[in-house]
């Protein structure tokens, strides 16, 4: 499932954080803009997708569920 792979990618990029489904990466100040760019790059490579530049914003990266939804939508 995409969610588990996405979680693994984030854990590889940010081994310093403990990720739960409801962890709020943006609202809790865990991710900065560099983290988002790194995650987008890793997701694009892993899933063979191209995330729309308009969706590279905090609202799409706040929780694991938000990121999973973005990846699923980008696969279509």
Task: Please describe what this structure looks like.
- This protein has 76 residues and is mainly α.
- 51% of the residues lie in helices and 0% in strands.
- 17% of the residues are buried.
- The radius of gyration is 11 Å and the shape is globular.
- It has one domain (2-75): Orthogonal Bundle (Non-ribosomal Peptide Synthetase Peptidyl Carrier Protein, Chain A).
- It has three helices and no strands.
- The protein has helices at residues 2-13, 33-47, 64-75.
Furnish the topology, listing elements before pairings.
Layout: H1 2-13, H2 33-47, H3 64-75
Number of helices: 3
Q: Could you tell me how far the N terminus lies from the C terminus, measured between alpha carbons in angstroms?
A: 16 Å
Remind me, CATH topology? Non-ribosomal Peptide Synthetase Peptidyl Carrier Protein, Chain A
Largest sheet: none
CATH arch. level architecture: Orthogonal Bundle
CATH homologous group name: ACP-like
